[in-house]
Write a structure and sequence with these properties.
Helix content: 10-25%
Shape: globular
Bound molecules: zinc ion
Oligomer: single chain
Number of helices: 13
Strand content: 25-35%
Number of strands: 35
Largest sheet: 11 strands, mixed
Distance between the termini: 53 Å
Structural class: alpha/beta
Length: about 575
C-alpha cells in the first residue's frame, strides 16, 4: 500500500478489490430496464489498468448504459421561459432548466451577486444512501438559469462557449461572431445551422467541416469555397452536388464541367426556390448513398478504435476526439489524456465518469458541468476548485465536503471515512443517478443519442417533460404552405407570426438578424423547427452512436457511425485512402 496515502482505509480496501480483479465478462445492472443495454460486457485488462490508474472499482453498468446516463446530464439546445426563484424576482427568465425540474433556479445576476454556496454546507450521514443525501443537498442549493461565459456578448439565448458575439440559439460557440442555431462552432463568422465547424465563414448548414467560405449543405468537407451539397470533399472551389472529390473546380454531381457550363447549370437550378431546393436535396442524398463512405474517419492516428478520431493515439472505444491520448470509452474530447468514460471535455486528464468537465481539469470523478477542477469527486456547477467532494456551486475553494469547509488534515480524514464506507457498501464507483440531472431526459442530449418514449424514460427512473410547446398566445400562425417559395417574396411581417413546423407541428419564430441572413444569402425561409433541423444534423454524424460494420472491399470488421440498416457502402480507412486520397 502507498505509504503516502491520504485516504489509507479507502486505499487498502480498493487495493484488495483491484488485486483480485482479472479480466472477465459481467452482466450490466440495467439489462432489464434499458433498451440500449449491451446486457453483458467485458472487463478487459486495459479496463483494469485504468481502474488502477484512476483509483476506482469496476463499474456495474455496461459502457453504453454509462454513456446513456451521462448524456442525460447535458442540454445543448433547449431553452425555456420559466419563473426566477431568486428572492424578490417576479419576471420570467430564459433558462435551460425545464419547468418540470425541482431545482431552485436563479437568474445569472442573482446567482453571481446573492448566492453564497457555503450557507448550504452540511455533513455526511453514513446511515443514509449517499445519492439520496446528495440529491437532497443538490435540491437545496440554487442552480444558475444557464451556463454562459461572461465573455459572451449579445448572446442571451446561448449555452456555454467563450468569446461568442451575437449568438442566437448556439451551444458551444467559441471565438465566433454572428451565429444562429448551431452547436460547437469554433473561430467562425456569419454561420447558421451548423454542427461542429471550425474557421468557417458566411455559410449555411455545414456539418463536421473546417475552413470553408461561402458554402451551403456541406458534410465532412474541408477547405472548400463557393460550393454547395458536398460530402467528404476537400479543397473544392465552385463545386455542386459532389461526393469524395479532392482538389476540384466546376464539378457538378462529380462531373467535370467547363466554367461556363457550370455557371449555366447553377443558374438553371433556381436555388432560391424552396420547392426546387428540396428536390435537389433528395437527389443529393441519393447520390451520396451510391458512393463509398469512410466508415470510421481516423486521421493521423496511431492505435485507436472508434469513430471520428484525429491526431490521437492509444484511444479505444472513442466517439469524436482530437489530440487525445490514452483514453477509453470517451466521447467529444479535445486535447485530453488518461481518461475513461469522459464526455464533452477539453484540455484535461485523469477524468473518470464525467461530462462537461474541462479547462485544465485533472483527477476528477463522477462530476458534471464544472471547469478548472483538480483532485475532486461528485461536483456540480463548480469552478476553480481543488480537493472537494460532493459539492455544488463552489468557486475558488479547497477542502470542502457537501459545501462545508474543513482544515486540510480534517478534510482527508473525513474523506477517507466517507469513501471507505461507500466502497464497503458498494455505493462508490458510479456516476450520479438520472434524478441528479438538471434536465428531463427528453430535453437532454440523451434524447438525440438514445431516444426513448415516455414509458421507457419513466421505467428507467428518469424525468420526462411534457411537449415543449411554445405558447404563441394570440399570435397569428403560418403553415408551411403559406410561406412564400423564395425569400424575395417575404416581407417583415413574417417576424410577427409563428410558423408551424411541417414535421413536428411545433411553432417557431424568425428573428430580425436571421431574416437578414436569409435575405443576404438568398435562402428561403425554413419550414422546419430549429430543434428538428438540429436533430437532423446530429443524425448526419450518427447521433454520437457507434455500430459494427464490415469494409465492403477488404471485409475487415470496423467501427462506424453509419447504421448498418441504412445500406451505406462502408470502406475502412485504408481502402478509402487507396481509392480516394
Ligand atoms: Zn447496460
Ligand atoms: Zn477495407
Amino acid at each position: 500500500m502507498n505509504k503516502e496515502s491520504k485516504t489509507p482505509k479507502f486505499d487498502a480496501l480498493l487495493n484488495e478489490i483491484l488485486e483480485n480483479l482479472a479480466p472477465h465478462e459481467r452482466e450490466c445492472e440495467w439489462k432489464d430496464i434499458s433498451k440500449y443495454c449491451e446486457k453483458k460486457f467485458e472487463i478487459t485488462a486495459e479496463d483494469i489498468n485504468f481502474y488502477k490508474l484512476l483509483r476506482v472499482p469496476p463499474p456495474k453498468l455496461c459502457p453504453t448504459c454509462r454513456r446513456q446516463k451521462r448524456f442525460s446530464f447535458v442540454n445543448q439546445i433547449n431553452l425555456y421561459k420559466r419563473p426566477n426563484n431568486a428572492p424578490g424576482s417576479k419576471d420570467k427568465i430564459i433558462s435551460y432548466v425545464p419547468l418540470v425540474s425541482s431545482l431552485i433556479v436563479y437568474d445569472i445576476k442573482s446567482y453571481q451577486d446573492n448566492f453564497d454556496p457555503y450557507t448550504y454546507g452540511t455533513f455526511y450521514d453514513a446511515k443514509r444512501p449517499f445519492f439520496e443525501q446528495f440529491l437532497d443537498f443538490r435540491l437545496k442549493v440554487p442552480q444558475p438559469s444557464i451556463i454562459r461565459d461572461p465573455s459572451n456578448i449579445n448572446s442571451e439565448y446561448s449555452i456555454n462557449g467563450r468569446n461568442l458575439k451575437n449568438g442566437y440559439y448556439v451551444s458551444g460557440g467559441w471565438m465566433s461572431e454572428d451565429v444562429w442555431y448551431s452547436v460547437n462552432v469554433f473561430s467562425s463568422r456569419s454561420v447558421m445551422d451548423c454542427l461542429i465547424v471550425r474557421n468557417v465563414e458566411n455559410s449555411y448548414e455545414l456539418v463536421s467541416s473546417d475552413k470553408c467560405y461561402n458554402c451551403r449543405y456541406l458534410y465532412f468537407s474541408d477547405n472548400c469555397i463557393d460550393s454547395q451539397f458536398l460530402y467528404d470533399c476537400n479543397n473544392c472551389i465552385k463545386c455542386f452536388g459532389c461526393v469524395n472529390l479532392r482538389n476540384k473546380s466546376y464539378c457538378f454531381f462529380n462531373e467535370q464541367l467547363t466554367k461556363e457550363n457550370y455557371e449555366e447549370k447553377i443558374q438553371e437550378l433556381n436555388l432560391p426556390s424552396r420547392d426546387l431546393l428540396s428536390k435537389i436535396k433528395e437527389r443529393f442524398w441519393e447520390f451520396v448513398k451510391i458512393h463509398p463512405v469512410r466508415a470510421s474517419r481516423h486521421e493521423r492516428t496511431e492505435n485507436v478504435s472508434g469513430v471520428n478520431i484525429f491526431n490521437s493515439r492509444n484511444c479505444y472505444d472513442i466517439i469524436y476526439a482530437r489530440r487525445t491520448e490514452h483514453s477509453l470509452h470517451c466521447d467529444q474530447l479535445l486535447g485530453n489524456r488518461d481518461s475513461m468514460d469522459a464526455s464533452i471535455s477539453g484540455g484535461s486528464e485523469k477524468l473518470y465518469q464525467t461530462i462537461g468537465i474541462g479547462s485544465d481539469s485533472s483527477n476528477v470523478k463522477f462530476s458534471f458541468l464544472s471547469k478548472f477542477i483538480l483532485d475532486s469527486e461528485f461536483l456540480i456547477n463548480c469552478r476553480n476548485v481543488q480537493n472537494c467532494f460532493a459539492c455544488v456551486g463552489l468557486e475558488n475553494k479547497n477542502y470542502c465536503i457537501f459545501n462545508y469547509q474543513y482544515e486540510p488534515k480534517k478534510y482527508f480524514k473525513e474523506l477517507d471515512k466517507i469513501k471507505f464506507v461507500l466502497l464497503g457498501k458498494g455505493e462508490y464507483g458510479e456516476f450520479p443517478p438520472f434524478t441528479m440531472s438538471s434536465f428531463a431526459y427528453n430535453g437532454s442530449q440523451a434524447d438525440f443519442v438514445f431516444p426513448l418514449n415516455k414509458a421507457e424514460v419513466q421505467k428507467m427512473g428518469a424525468l420526462w417533460q411534457p411537449d415543449m410547446e411554445i405558447d404563441v398566445g394570440d399570435m397569428a400562425t403560418l403553415s408551411a404552405q403559406e410561406i412564400p417559395d423564395t425569400i424575395t417574396e417575404v416581407d417583415d411581417e413574417i417576424m410577427n407570426k409563428a410558423i408551424i413546423c411541417e414535421e413536428t407541428g411545433r411553432p417557431f419564430r424568425i428573428v430580425k438578424s436571421e431574416l437578414k441572413f436569409y435575405r443576404d444569402n438568398n435562402i428561403p425561409i425554413p419550414t422546419i423547427h430549429p430543434h428538428q433541423r438540429m436533430r437532423t444534423r446530429f443524425s448526419h454524424i450518427g447521433n454520437y452512436r457507434m455500430h459494427d460494420g464490415v469494409c465492403e472491399l477488404c471485409n475487415i470488421k470496423i467501427k462506424t457511425f453509419y447504421n448498418s440498416k441504412e445500406n451505406w457502402h462502408l470502406y475502412c480507412d485504408q481502402c478509402y485512402k487507396d481509392n480516394y486520397l
